[in-house]
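Q: Got a minute? One more chain.
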Amino acid sequence: MRYWIDRRARELSLRFMYSLDVKSSDFSYDFDNFNENVSNFWDSNPINNYYMLKLMRIKEEEMIVIGSTALSNNKIFLRIISKEKFNSLVSKLGNISKFKTFLKIYNLNEKIEGHDADFYKVLRDIFENSRKVVTKNIIKNKADEIIHGCAKNIKPIDDQIDQTIKNWRFDRINTVDLNILRIAVFEILFSKGIPVPVSIKEAIVLALKYSSDESCGFINGILDTISKRALQ
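A: Always. Here it is, folded:
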């Protein structure tokens, strides 16, 4: 679950940093102004909810965790149900992939077609047979940590990137790739508890999703060099 939370937090951090279009040469970290920008981002973010359908082992029992959360508040709402019971309820539909799509639409409060009544029935059954857990919005909190950490340390982070690139200029790195690199370098140099290989792998995952296949090798090479230099 930790990796799932961190991955969603990185995605949100990337969206914010891309929207702000931070350039190292002209960025000045003012705590109050920056906090206002972050707050406005959470309030206006079109992705108001996050969907999760995750298999976990809790006290030696396989459980399904279903969760959705409004990013503008500081709560995350989870439903926990045994895998056996979940499979029994969802098997009535015959197609779990369609149910996953339904959950995403449901969590985003988008219009659901009338013929999806069977999905509603199963969802109600799941809620009746599950345990509700309300906790802090750790996804949003983690994203805030990444965003502020990158902003506070942007100059040393960008210096590390600039010193590492070869046959290319820093100002020619496209915005998405640059911010993926910043997030990973922040984790490698300034964050604790995340193994370096994980940070590099997750940066490549972001590149595959938001950039291009060509960017993966570029990003991997830079992060590999920076991580080795950090260990010297």
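A: The radius of gyration is 20 Å.
Q: Perfect, thanks.
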